[in-house]
Amino acid sequence: MQTEEGFELLRSMWRIRVFEERVGALTRANEIHGLIHLSVGQEAVAVGVCGALRDDDAVYSNHRAHGHALAKGAPPAKVMAELMGREGGLCRGLGGSMHLVDVEHGLLGATGVVGGNVPLALGSALAAQLGGSDAVAVVFFGDGAVQGGIFVESVNLATLWRLPVLLVCENNGFAEFTPRSAHTTVERVSDVVAPYGIARETVDGNDIIAVRGAFTAFLAAARAGEGPALLECLTHRLRGHYEGDPQRYREALAEEEWQQIDPILRLQRTLEVEGEEFEAEARAEVDAAERLARESPFPPASLTAELVYA
Amino acid sequence: MNETTYLEATRRALAAAMRADPRVLVLGEDVAEGGPWGATAGLVEEFGPERVRNTPISEAAIAGIAVGAAQSGLRPVVEIMFVDFVTLALDQLVNQAAKSHFMSGGQLTCPLVLRTQGGAGQRGGAQHSQSLEAWLTHVPGLKVAMPSSAADASGLFASAILDDNPVVVVENKTLYFRRERVPDLPPPVPLGRACVVRPGRDATVVALSRLVPEALAAADALAADGIEIEVVDPRTLVPLDLDTIAASVKRTHRLVVAHEAVEHGGVGAEIAAQVQHTCFDDLDAPVERVGAPFAPVPFSPPLEDAYLPGRAEVAAAVRTVLGRAA
After folding, report:
1. Residue A168: which H helix or E strand, with range?
2. Catalytic annotation on B59?
3. What is the pLDDT of residues A139-194, one digit of tens each?
């Protein structure tokens, strides 16, 4: 990896980290409302995957969507404004945290229904395939989505139709409040799909170089018409399932243990750089995003009726 | 004008739409084989397996794929073989398709058509005979059409495919093979425009789907007694053409709403409420509803026949609103 490329990945991860921490603070200050799920600790997956994509590649995200949106190129101010319910938000304030969409940058959807986004990515991949494009569709989901029927239906169809779709599982070990071991006897998500003969790999999802390496190989194959793949990224959700989650179900990670696996610190060690400069840059960006979001008005009440139908 | 069936009219409308627009494709169980009734017969030969896609029995994924494809520039037609199985696709229809334009602040459109069929009368038992359209009318963002004739089956389907919103077309299996004289390709029927199927002065009967021919049969019987009813078919439940219904009620001053679905919580309740609000001073009698009893559809043939509302129930309801109960 070239140094400048590494710096770009670091910049993108810091942007998400600082943005998410700010969202947490604003949620606690009652300035952001609703159900907020932060991706602090999982930045390497969003950036390792989305950083390799083009604007015409579709991404479908889930309830933990902020990092995916930022990594795909959504402007931080528009994401922040959306979380605050403002007219200047990505979705004019009608979507909110779990339903971020930025068509311009290829973020075609995010859903609060676990697993509900998986077939949508197949549909987008089908459109690319029939249209003769080499674009792909990517769907992010957690390990909790894998136990749902629609996941199996989708894996079956993706492989049957050799769709250019990349299934990216962020396995943070917890489905909401419950460890994976309490939900299934299959430890690895990549093993769940084994019978379908789909290309699959499990990587250390906190190692952005590993994520990016495995993903770009799958991406090249999908662009070449070789069909779908599943990438399982083992990662760690540093915060609760949602903001305000008391997390009685698990022990907090010891600080020194976290420093060993923090994807940002790891990339900094690899690149042999200190993070201050990148963190400061991200902070300035997020400050500006927050300011712009606050300046944006709430949408007019008439907007609700206006957008029910196209 | 040639004789054709509701089903054949549906098939022709789909073929015409696929010829006119290469973005239109059809997905569903057995569609390349023509489906159980032949609604997609011959399409794979003309358009190929990429656009006439057989799917596994995976209703949720089929619907979800259609949503993603629609958001990415295609115009998919999804076939769900029985409306009873739409239950398996409801997350995709209700949470994804219906809300994507709204939740994206207008960035996304979801031009998909879900065609399915409902209704009892063929001894299918309680899981292959339901009328579930009321659920779908309760979801903002969906449009819902229920054709009762061959011309409307074609015309509503054509409009649904051209529409930029998700549209559910609920056909009725017992109407599939009725023969009617219609043009080879009837014109599109705008969504949201009701049709006065038979004019009359004494009472308005708003009837859905199979209850339209039943109401017409009731009209013939009542006419023998000098009672002239006006039969109005809303054709689409969302959007609902209240203007046409209200104009009829203002002429006749009496209303019966008739559908095969369970009366409790049915679309008839919504129509009755809207009419009493709009036409309170015009009504000379309480609105009567005709619908199935609050029970699953029974299998045993005499029980199913007794369960199903039809011409007799419509005629009785008309006599009630006219104060001439037999």
Report:
1. strand A165-171
2. yes
3. 999 999 999 999 999 999 999 999 999 999 999 888 777 888 888 999 999 999 99
Query: What pTM does this model have?
Result: 0.96
Task: Measure in Å the smallest separation between the Cα of A217 and chain B Cα atoms.
Answer: 24
Contact B62, B78 (CB under 8 A): yes
What SS3 state is found at B183?
coil
B137 touches A: beta carbon within 8 Å: no
Q: A116 and chain B: CB distance < 8 Å anywhere? A: yes
Active-site hit among B8, B29, B59, B79: B59
- Report residue B301 as tokens: 């043939």
Q: What is the DSSP string of A45-82?
A: HHHHHHTT--TTSEEEE-SS-HHHHHHHT--HHHHHHH
Closest among B14, B37, B35 to B178, alpha carbons compared: B37
Cα separation of A124 and B88, whole Å? 21
**Whether B267 contacts B237, CB under 8 Å:** yes
Q: How far from B110 is each of A287, B77, B161, B302, CA to CA, in Å?
A: 36, 11, 11, 43
Distance CA A177, CA A199 (A): 30
CA A284 to chain centre: 22
Which residues are registered as beta bridge partners of A98?
none
pLDDT tens-digit series, residues A88-144 = 999 999 999 999 999 999 999 999 999 999 999 999 999 999 999 999 999 999 999
Residues from chain A that touch B109, judged by Cβ atoms under 8 A, are 310
Using CA atoms, how far residue A57 sits from A222, B22, B45, B188, in Å, is 11, 22, 32, 36
**Token pair listed for B45:** 């030969």
